[in-house]
Amino acid sequence: MVPERLIAPLYGFAEADRIAKVTRGTAKRWIEGYSYGRPDGVRVTRPPITLRRPGAGDGVSFRDLIEVVAIGGFKEHGLSIASIRRIVAACQQLFREPYPLSAYAFKVGGRDVFVGNGDVLHDVLRHRGAMAWDEVLGPFLATLDYRDSFAFRWWPLGRSKPIVVDPEFGFGLPVILGSGVKTEIVRERFEVGDSIEQISYDFNITPIEVESAIQFELNRAA
């Protein structure tokens, strides 16, 4: 059973966009689906790419967020939205998991699907499976911590940097590991002119931790 903290609504759509480093409105489209009007007046409706727990309202859960990050990696890799939909749907079926990209089973067995078993997604990936895994999914999955078969913590800058996104701390917002200081607060202090040394002193964190928080925030804003 999935722990409530992983599926509870923690983020607004705009905040999810920022944390996942996707363009504005992306999380809502990928989680809820969207529609648009064609020049001929026909209204076209597109379904969500990833599933969402019924009754979640306008909130985005940690599991939703992780799925959005992974899907964003596919998009940056050059895969079309149509292809990504088919990849996610195939993984949902293969792993019998509605959120396959954040499941430990996918971390363990996903490479075989993308690389070893060419027939599964051959028509979608067209020999790009190994590249997609090595350049997108492998590095991303290495930044996730798992507990009870589910991803429960994300290291958005990699494990060498002390920035984590964890539903158990800071309401799921990015924080500096061990201190609970939110990265957005560090950025705000830096933007108004406070030095790294002053911020470090005020929050009892190291200059390296301050620099990592600023790096993460600047990357989010880029």
Question: In brief, what are we looking at here?
Answer:
The protein has helices spanning 4-7, 13-20, 26-32, 62-76, 81-95, 104-116, 122-125, 129-141, 183-191, 196-203, 207-221, and strands at residues 34-37, 43-46, 144-147, 150-154, 163-164, 175-176. With 222 residues, the chain is mainly alpha-helical. The strands form three sheets. Strands 1-2 form a two-stranded antiparallel sheet. A two-stranded antiparallel sheet has the order 3-4.
Secondary-structure topology with pairs:
Elements: H1 4-7, H2 13-20, H3 26-32, E1 34-37, E2 43-46, H4 62-76, H5 81-95, H6 104-116, H7 122-125, H8 129-141, E3 144-147, E4 150-154, E5 163-164, E6 175-176, H9 183-191, H10 196-203, H11 207-221
Antiparallel strand pairs: 1-2, 3-4, 5-6
Helix pairs in contact: 6-8, 9-11, 10-11
What is the multimeric organization of the chains shown?
A: single chain
Shape summary: globular
Task: List unreliable stretches of 5+ residues.
Answer: none
Give the amount of beta strand, in percent.
Answer: 5-15%
As laid out across the biggest beta sheet, the strand order is 1-2
Mean pLDDT across the residues is 90
Query: How widely separated are the two ends?
Result: 37 Å
How many distinct folded domains?
A: 2
Number of helices: 11
Radius of gyration: 19 Å
Overall structural class, as computed from helix and strand content, comes to: mainly alpha
* Helix and strand run: HHHEEHHHHHEEEEHHH
Proportion of helical residues: 40-55%
> How can the largest sheet be summarized?
2 strands, antiparallel
Number of strands: 6
